[in-house]
Amino acid sequence: MARYGVRRIFLDRGVMGDPVAEGILSESGEIPVVLVNGPQEVARRLSTFEDPLGEGKHSLLITRQRGDFVKGCPGTHNHICCRYQIINLVVNCPIDCSYCILQGYLNNPAITIYINIEELFAQVEEKLSGDPGRVFRLGTGELGDSLAFDGMTRFSTALVPFFAEKANVIFELKTKTDEVDNLLDLDHRGKTVISWSVNPEKLIAEEERSASTLEERLVAAEKCQQEGYPIGLHFDPLIYYPEWERDYRGVIEKIFERIDGKGIIWISLGGFRFPPYLKPIIRNRFPASKILWGELFPGNDGKFRYLKSLRVEMYRKIVGWLRDYEPNLFIYLCMESQEVWEKVFGWSPKNNGALDHLFAQRVRSFSSACDRFSILSLDRK
Ligand code: SF4
Prior knowledge:
By secondary structure, this protein is α/β, with parallel strands linked by helices. It has one domain: pyruvate-formate lyase- activating enzyme (Alpha-Beta Horseshoe), CATH 3.80.30.30. Helix content is 35%, strand content 19%. It has 13 helices and 18 strands. An 8-stranded mixed beta sheet has the order 4-5-9-10-11-13-14-18. Strands 2-1-3-8-6 form a 5-stranded mixed beta sheet. Strands 15-17-16 form a 3-stranded antiparallel beta sheet. α8 runs parallel beside α9, α9 runs parallel beside α11 and α11 packs across α12. The radius of gyration is 20 Å and the shape is globular. The chain starts with 7 loop residues before the first strand and ends in a 12-residue tail after the last helix. The relative contact order is 0.12. The site of iron/sulfur cluster has 9 residues, from β7.
């Protein structure tokens, strides 16, 4: 946690005395605590800084979630999406990626930690029991990093055992850190996937400020695999630059030096893409960044992407390099069209529901094929 340089904790008066909030504060050492009257006051205070987004990366807000914890991934129009469910327990993150869409998406720049985890569990129970025949995939890593502050919140020690008991769900913690110490002794029963976003070290150093190095992430992944967790990998965003082939091949080589491919439950590929509002933010906050140098064009969902031919070439090559190591990997594309799926794999899911179904099959076949890694016991209705 020290490496993230937290400068202040805003404590919502409404959660003073709450045992979860007190537990987090007791782990926070000497960080000054400022009492506030809710998230809007925090947003107002941070707006007075020259770089509110940057200052927000050094500011925690401890408060209560007043809305729904669980939401469907918004996906994107006219593209295949996988019906993933997002849990908003910690929103925003201390890592500062130049390409992060949250920079223009959140209305509060602070890293917000919600302490009413019991309400989250009640909402999840309701969702799972409302559709017992479906295999849900839920994760905390879409609007923040799942583990960056786990040393302080210890949320994983409640989440992992909770999901270990549930029949029709698989839960994912997604991170760019090596903060896995809390996970290693938990009784996960193979129901929690620990996932890492991966990129070449050069890009991590240039575009993912404060994130762990690739080597650190893979050492952490190796530890989790030794404890039987299914491992996920996300090549997202894939970034084009002249040496991309050499460098991404190097990433894949390093992955398989440490990770047994049979214990990888899924791998996603997603080319760099961004909504138009992000361009001026990247230029302003990361003037040295090179990610906007490539040729990027708006697609029919309004987001800028590399040319389709380039994306297909990158995906195909990466799929090939991965399958050279492990032919049976489950690899999917994030936010791509049916046409791109066809060109990369020679087939495409017909729609979002079909992809969701494939994930359910994957989870079930992984559980039966990988006793060594997982003791998943999903309801086979
Ligand atoms: S780790 Fe994820 S949430 Fe955090 S800044 Fe990077 S892209 Fe955004």
